[in-house]
């Protein structure tokens, strides 16, 4: 029993040096083997006596041994591999042989044993199997038996010798095996030590990182591994699969369970959830689940990682806010507003009858505030404006700064977009009545708005916004506080782009023509003049009307050559009519930009000369808005024109500027009442009142008053009763091409005679 204990402790003891340890072990082995194999000193002495005789015959064993090794393909492979790695195979075989033959030598106790153990270790390292060693010894014993039979040795002695040799070979095999054992054990130990070191460093790493890591066994629903921070949080034990399930935000618990289900189905999954870990304040965490599959591809475990992403989430939110919010006013920016708009559209499309209004709002002359008061005041003003707008726009309506001095208001899910936007527009206009205080300055600010409604004015985000802006620009051109989108008047950017290249060539290709609409004296029915109205005979689109041409031409800087062409063409026509016997003065519309041209007066003069007509053949029509752009200059231009007989009419009177004080400062001859008051003048008492007032005003100031848009006999009669001077409209004649106008002229002169 004591021996057994000694044996089992082998290799595990602490000895000073490695050599000393090996020697003492070999000594121990020598005694042990002698003991277990019953090898007595007598037997060894006996062998010693016959050693010379036997050893002499062993020289022949070399060949037997060589054949044994190379006849066995597995052993041969190992030997060749050894050779390939630079080993000397013949030398190895020779050494093996010598070592084996050494079995007879009587050596100092423990020496042979130590060598045998060492040999075992080496054979292990070279990949030689123990059974091959046993085979070699068996072969050697058989060879010796044959050798002894050849020698003249008595049978009894032979038997005893064989017995001793058998014991010695068993000892050799045993000790060589022990070498194998030692080597394998050492290798396993060092591998184990390596694994332990790696494990320790991984464990160390996992316990140092703040993320929580654990694995869940799907079948048993147990947690076979959890890293230190997780155990530290839950010292009582880990509930699978998520120890923190109960501390997860109620709205996010389902997310965890869905993620788990995905992982159990073999998919990597991740969720961002709010958890209050161990009573700490709620944070955002990302839970990532990685299923681990068995050899059949089935998930058996799920590796879980929980990381705190609170900081990243708040940074992300901050970034989102920055990218969707205007930093100056803290209002949503165009991107976010566009999102709101598309969401509103999506929900309105689902509900029949649900409408949307998009209002584009622009601050008039904002550049002036910036340039004169400085950008800081400009910024303050924008903030104040944003604040004021916020106070009138309802929570449910989306207000945004779309850029520069432009704001947007979105009214979603309303029953009547037009009425709703009129209500908001009125409130917004009202709130701008009060001046803004910006760093001890009182600033009066005016705005212009344009509105487009879904579904009437557009069915997608882009169309609605563009159309609201087009309406706003039209309102600006006409100096109106707001306008709704009008598909006839508002030119879309697409259209602008389409026409931009074509307008220039239209002039060169004579695609522009003038139609003439007569103005007739309401009492005598005699013609008093004709308004020249532009038409574009588009080669592909047919007749294009001025409301689509003029704004584009103005924006592209093409209006001056058009005005020049209209002037000269109309005046030449006037000359033609007068040559034919009828004096018909022409009215030519001059747009705001043309009116600004410093060479306007010279051009008109030149055109009159070129057409060989006098100034009283021409009346220019300008709108109130055009006049108001620069009143001083307007007064000067009109006075100079008046000097050589050209008269001036204010077109579309009543729709523009509300201040009438400018009238007395300008040399004006005619007021043309806007057709919006005339169309229903026969029925609408308010229109009657307005028209009556305008006529009175005009007459009191000494102007001629012309009514535009006279479409019916009843309107004609009413205007006649109200004392209006002239009428222009479909009731008299539509605008006519020159040839038809000539016929109309001939017919009407005849009927008057
Ligand atoms: P406007 O100067 O007020 O011209 C009158 C407009 O009313 C014309 O439209 C005419 O066709 C239309 N009209 C005439 N009688 C009636 C009527 O009884 N009922 C209705 N509903 N409409 C009537 P048009 O020709 O489409 O011109 C529109 C505007 O385009 C003009 O308004 C004028 O401001 C501008 N325009 C026309 N020709 C020129 C031009 O050569 N140069 C510039 N700068 N503007 C022009
Ligand atoms: Mg006109
Ligand atoms: Mg008009």
Distance between termini? 155 Å
Structural class: alpha/beta
Runs in which pLDDT lies below 50 for 5 or more consecutive residues are 1-16
Broad CATH class of the largest domain? Alpha Beta
Average pLDDT for all residues: 89
Count every beta strand, where a strand is a DSSP E run of 2 or more residues. 22
Q: Helicity, in percent?
A: 40-55%
What is the CATH H-level superfamily of the largest domain? Answer: EAL domain
Q: Given the structure, what is the number of helices?
A: 29
Q: Bound small molecules, which ones? A: ligand C2E, magnesium ion
Estimated share of beta-strand residues = 15-25%
Gyration radius, to the nearest Å? Answer: 55 Å
The biggest beta sheet is recorded as: 8 strands, mixed, barrel
The coarse overall form would be rod-shaped
**CATH third-level topology of the largest domain:** TIM Barrel
Biggest sheet strand line-up? 13-14-16-17-18-19-20-21
Number of domains: 4
The CATH architecture designation of the largest domain is: Alpha-Beta Barrel
């Amino acid at each position: 029993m004591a021996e057994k204990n000694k044996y089992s402790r082998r290799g595990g003891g602490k000895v000073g040096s490695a050599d000393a340890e090996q020697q003492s072990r070999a000594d121990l082995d020598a005694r042990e083997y002698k003991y277990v194999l019953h090898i007595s000193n007598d037997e060894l002495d006996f062998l010693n006596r016959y050693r010379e005789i036997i050893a002499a015959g062993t020289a022949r064993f070399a060949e037997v041994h060589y054949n044994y090794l190379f006849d066995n393909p597995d052993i041969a492979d190992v030997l060749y591999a050894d050779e390939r790695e630079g080993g000397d195979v013949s030398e190895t075989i020779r050494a093996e042989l010598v070592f084996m033959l050494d079995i007879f030598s009587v050596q100092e106790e423990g020496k042979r044993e130590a060598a045998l153990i060492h040999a075992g270790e080496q054979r292990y390292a070279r990949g030689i199997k123990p059974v091959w060693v046993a085979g070699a010894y068996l072969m050697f014993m058989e060879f010796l038996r044959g050798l002894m039979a050849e020698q003249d040795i008595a049978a009894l002695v032979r038997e005893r010798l064989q017995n001793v040799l058998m014991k010695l070979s068993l000892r050799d095999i045993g000790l060589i095996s022990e070498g194998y054992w030692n080597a394998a054990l050492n290798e396993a130990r060092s591998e184990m030590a390596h694994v332990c070191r790696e494990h320790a460093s991984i464990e160390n790493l996992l316990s140092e990182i703040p993320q929580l890591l654990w694995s869940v066994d799907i079948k048993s629903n147990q947690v076979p591994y959890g890293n230190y921070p997780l155990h530290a949080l839950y010292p009582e034990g880990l509930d699978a699969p998520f120890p923190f399930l109960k501390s997860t935000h109620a709205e996010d618990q389902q997310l965890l369970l869905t993620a788990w289900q995905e992982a159990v189905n073999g998919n990597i999954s991740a969720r961002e959830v709010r958890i209050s870990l161990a009573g700490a304040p709620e944070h955002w965490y990302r839970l990532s689940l990685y299923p681990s599959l068995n050899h059949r591809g089935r998930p058996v475990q799920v590796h879980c990682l929980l990381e705190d992403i609170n900081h990243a989430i708040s940074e992300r939110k901050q970034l989102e806010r920055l990218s969707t919010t205007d930093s100056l006013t803290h209002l949503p920016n165009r991107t976010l507003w566009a999102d709101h708009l598309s969401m509103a559209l999506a929900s309105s499309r689902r509900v029949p009858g649900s409408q949307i209004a998009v209002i584009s709002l622009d601050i008039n002359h904002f550049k002036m505030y910036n340039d004169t008061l400085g950008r800081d005041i400009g910024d303050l003003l924008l903030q104040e404006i944003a604040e004021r707008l916020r106070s009138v726009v309802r929570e449910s309506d989306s207000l945004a700064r779309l850029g520069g001095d432009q704001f947007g208001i979105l009214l979603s899910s309303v029953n009547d977009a037009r009425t709703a936007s009129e209500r908001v527009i009125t409130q917004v206009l009202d709130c701008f009545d009060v001046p803004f205080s910006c760093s001890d300055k009182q600033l009066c600010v005016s705005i212009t708005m344009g509105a487009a409604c879904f579904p009437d004015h557009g069915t997608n985000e882009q169309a609605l916004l563009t159309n609201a802006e087009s309406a706003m620009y039209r309102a600006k051109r006409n100096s109106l506080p707001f306008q709704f989108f009008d598909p006839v008047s508002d030119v879309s950017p697409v259209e602008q782009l389409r026409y931009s290249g074509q307008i220039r060539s239209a002039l060169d290709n004579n695609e522009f023509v003038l139609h003439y609409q007569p103005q007739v004296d309401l009492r005598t029915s005699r013609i008093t003049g004709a308004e020249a109205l532009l038409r574009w005979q588009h080669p592909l689109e047919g007749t294009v009307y001025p409301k689509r041409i003029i704004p584009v031409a103005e924006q592209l800087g093409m209006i001056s050559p058009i005005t020049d062409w209209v002037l000269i063409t109309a005046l030449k026509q006037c000359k033609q009519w007068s040559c034919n016997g009828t004096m018909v003065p022409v009215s030519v519309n001059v747009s705001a930009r043309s009116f600004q041209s410093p060479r306007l007066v010279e051009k008109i003069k030149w055109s009159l000369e070129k057409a060989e007509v006098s100034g009283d053949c021409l009346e220019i029509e300008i709108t109130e808005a055009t006049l108001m752009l620069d009143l001083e200059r307007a007064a000067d231009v009109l006075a100079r024109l008046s000097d050589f007989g050209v008269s001036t009419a204010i077109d579309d009177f009543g729709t523009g500027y509300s201040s009438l004080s400018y009238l007395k400062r300008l040399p004006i001859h005619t007021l043309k009442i806007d057709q919006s008051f005339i169309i229903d003048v026969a029925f609408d008492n308010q229109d009657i009142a307005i028209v009556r007032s305008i006529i009175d005003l005009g007459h009191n100031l000494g102007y001629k008053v012309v009514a535009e848009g006279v479409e019916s006999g009843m309107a004609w009669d009413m205007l006649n009763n109200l004392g209006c001077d002239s009428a222009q409209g479909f009731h008299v004649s539509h605008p006519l091409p020159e040839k038809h106008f000539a016929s109309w002229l001939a017919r009407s002169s005849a009927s008057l005679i």
